[in-house]
Amino acid sequence: MLLFFRCQNIIPKFTLGKEMKKIVVFTGAGMSAESGINTFRDSGGLWEQHKIEDVATPEAFRRDPDLVLNFYNQRRKQVLAAVPNKAHLAIAQLEKKFDVHVITQNIDDLHERAGSSKVLHLHGEILKSRSTVDPHLIYNIDGSDLQVGQRCERGSQLRPHIVWFGEAVPAMEEAEFITSESDIFLIIGTSLAVYPAANLVAFAKTHVPKYLVDPNAKPIPYIANLKIINEKAGAGIPVLVKKLLNDEQ
User: Fold this and answer.
1) Contact, 196 vs 170, CB < 8 A?
2) Mind listing the pLDDT tens digit for each residue in 135-157?
């Protein structure tokens, strides 16, 4: 004898939990500055007395690879010696109650070391190298130095895994999509002057609450629902994170 059951009588009832809001955090140089990592803007447009066009362009690498590699070796040593600051640690704490995505212009790994699990690097990662003939061949650098003569599996010279001036930003499309899905959007330590990354805020929906944390930030009329916090990241972010976590009780 065949037995038939009504589906609605055998399907268990579930009580779905509250869906986590998505916080997208967009960070710039000011985020890492308090960890001792400076930028060329902090030193009159120079990095260690080098012009940008001499150390941070594809043409510079072709012209003098030793100079460029040594420059980034020094930057890499600085990053390895640095530690995450209060702002990095606070952002990682947001993952207790939010789906947090960090989009950063910074090339260090301080967000990851602070505990953030979803980090997208727009301008590359200084602790990695990549092939000069195949950008998909990416390697972790063992130690701080990358030298002329170190080659990828296809035999080409390795270069820093950095987006240099004049190069496209491969992760930009992914960053725009992530931003478009945000419920809360934080902007930290950036003047919003470096393009195309500065356009990212335009992809956050109009109604989404936005916070800009930077000591020199000024009102931006074309950005809706923007609250400005004129503090350095280490002071402003822990307070903001505490507020956001409390609001989500």
Assistant:
1) no
2) 999 999 999 999 999 999 999 99
The tokens describing 194, both together, are 């470096």
Indicate the residue type of 62. Answer: R
Q: pTM for this one?
A: 0.88
Structure confidence at residue 10 (pLDDT): 39
Residue carrying the six token digits 């038939």: 4
Angle, alpha carbons 225-227-230 (nearest 5°): 160
Specify the DSSP element, H or E, that contains 176.
Answer: helix 172-180
**Count of CB atoms within 10 A of residue 79's CB?**
21
Distance CA 112, CA 249 (A): 26
pLDDT digits (tens, 9 = 90+) for 19-67: 899 999 999 988 999 999 876 555 555 566 778 889 999 999 999 999 9
Q: Is 165 helix (H, G, I), strand (E, B) or coil?
A: coil
Residue 128 in this model has a pLDDT that exceeds 90: yes
Of 3, 6, 34, 9, whose CA–CA distance to 114 is shortest? 34
Which region holds residue 118: left if phi is over 0, alpha if psi is between -120 and 50, else beta?
beta
Catalytic residue numbers read: 123
Helical segments of 11-102, H only: 29-33, 52-55, 58-63, 65-81, 86-93
Q: d(Cα 138, Cα 41) in Å, to the nearest integer? A: 28
